[in-house]
């Protein structure tokens, strides 16, 4: 069953609380902004006609310009971001597929290195590009990606490639707008889905250096960066108008002479995947990619874009309108950040009260700034996430995500999460969040009091009922 179609217990009299679904609550969708923006765009013939026709490969020029300005103000790089570094996409997932089409070869590209636990729906995208047997998990530590592990494993991968004579692309022809990288590294560096962690600046810099050394393309989903607030539960404001850290693509732009330094090929080693799904609405299917000018242009030359122009051309004109007026930026700062910050506070307060005394642990709780949609929970031993999730569904009509679904398929030796859960504070009504955590605490407490219950439930979960988890 698709994750968006999760159902709870069919027998419980309690109302379903869904802490798995990673969607924005409908009350936080800025329909009024899109209503006004669409009217303005469609009332202007110059905008409407171009919006209704095939768009330029790189996307609506006005949206590219406005996104570049918005990112410049938020991330405050040493120099403004030019629109040439931006290509409009059909969202982060669609663009991940485009990046793989243009910049990888399923034979020559040695591995896809995935910071794990990872966004589970990305795995299929890598599979579709021929990397099913090349996905490798990279564990995290307290600073984010375990860089020593990554370096060691990439060296081994390179040794195998040399031994196999894998020295040039096998499936992709030479194209002036693209190149084929030897490795791909995939991460969600800030407020990660699902681990809730933020990669430190030191690790971001180390990651860029590794990517340059081994000709890797780092693809980062930077979709939660704008949803941030102080971690302190006593902070007076829940709005922050500047990014907590530079993105990996910013680090690549400036570190040690930058992505376009002398001797480099100009494509760089980082691509930032941005999306309006979390800050405006996933139904827009509109986002952007930022990289060097050569990389951004290469994405625009993907066959599907060359055939019909940039995806989401019409909705791109609506989003451009909201950015040009400043309404979307104000909505993020004045509505979304406080709303999600309040939801986070509600859930964290409940976790501190109900779960921490039971031995549940959370990562990186010493940060000054947190954000995103999710919180990662590590259960006290010997509890297993699969068992807790099943009993929460059966006994409390509560749906949570078990840690194992975020494991990289086929590579769990160094990154396995059978003792973990992910909960989301974005979808359910805020007043349901504390109740959801209270229900989860009842399940954990019951299992701790019943030493045999864990084994019995595991036997049930791995039998006929296992297929009904999601």
UniProtKB/TrEMBL annotation:
MF annotations from Gene Ontology: 2-aminoadipate transaminase activity; pyridoxal phosphate binding
Disordered: annotated span: 449-470
SUPFAM superfamilies: PLP-dependent transferases (SSF53383)
UniProt biased composition (Polar residues): 449-460
Record bears the keyword Aminoacyl-tRNA synthetase: no
Keyword vocabulary terms for this entry: Transferase
Domain Aminotransferase class I/classII large: start-end pairs: 52-440
The name this protein goes by in its record: PLP-dependent transferase
Lineage of origin: Eukaryota, Fungi, Dikarya, Ascomycota, Pezizomycotina
């Amino acid at each position: 069953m698709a994750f968006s179609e999760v159902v709870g217990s069919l027998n419980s009299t309690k109302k379903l609380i869904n802490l798995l679904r990673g969607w924005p609550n409908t009350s936080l969708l800025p329909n009024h902004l899109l209503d006004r923006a669409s009217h303005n765009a469609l009332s202007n013939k110059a905008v409407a006609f171009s919006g209704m026709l095939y768009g330029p490969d790189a996307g609506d020029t006005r949206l590219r310009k406005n996104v570049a300005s918005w990112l410049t103000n938020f991330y405050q790089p040493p120099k403004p971001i030019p629109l040439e570094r931006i290509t409009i996409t059909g969202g982060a997932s669609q663009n991940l597929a485009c990046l793989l089409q243009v910049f990888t070869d399923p034979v020559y590209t040695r591995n896809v290195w995935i910071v794990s636990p990872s966004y589970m729906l990305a795995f299929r995208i890598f599979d579709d590009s021929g990397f099913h047997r090349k996905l490798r998990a990279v564990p995290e530590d307290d600073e984010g990606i375990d860089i020593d592990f990554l370096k060691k494993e990439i060296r081994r991968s390179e040794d195998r490639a040399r031994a196999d004579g894998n020295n040039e692309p096998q499936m992709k022809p030479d194209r002036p707008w693209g190149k084929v990288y030897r490795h791909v590294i995939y991460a969600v560096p800030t407020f990660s889905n699902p681990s809730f962690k933020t990669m430190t600046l030191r690790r971001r810099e180390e990651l860029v250096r590794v990517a340059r050394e081994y000709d890797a393309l780092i693809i980062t989903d930077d979709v939660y960066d704008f949803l941030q607030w102080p971690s302190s539960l006593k902070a007076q404001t829940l709005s922050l108008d500047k990014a907590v850290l530079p993105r990996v693509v910013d680090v690549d732009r400036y570190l040690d002479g930058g992505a376009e330094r002398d001797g480099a090929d100009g494509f760089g080693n980082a691509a930032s995947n941005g999306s309006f799904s979390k800050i405006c609405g996933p139904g827009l299917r509109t986002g952007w990619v930022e990289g060097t000018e050569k990389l951004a242009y290469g994405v625009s030359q993907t066959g599907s874009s060359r055939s019909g122009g940039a995806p989401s051309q019409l909705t791109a004109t609506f989003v451009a309108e909201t950015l040009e007026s400043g309404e979307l930026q104000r909505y993020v700062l004045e509505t979304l950040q406080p709303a999600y910050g309040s939801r986070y506070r509600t859930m964290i307060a409940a976790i501190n009260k109900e779960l921490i005394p039971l031995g549940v642990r959370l990562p990186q709780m010493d940060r000054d700034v947190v954000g995103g949609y999710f919180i990662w929970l590590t259960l006290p031993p010997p509890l297993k996430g699969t068992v807790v999730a099943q009993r929460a569904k059966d006994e409390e009509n509560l749906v949570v995500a078990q840690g194992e679904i975020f494991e990289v398929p086929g590579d769990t030796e160094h990154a396995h999460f059978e003792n973990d859960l992910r909960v989301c504070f974005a979808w359910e009504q805020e007043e349901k969040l504390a109740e959801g955590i209270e229900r989860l605490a009842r399940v954990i407490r019951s299992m701790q009091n019943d030493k045999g219950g864990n084994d019995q439930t595991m036997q049930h979960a791995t039998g006929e009922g296992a297929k009904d988890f999601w």
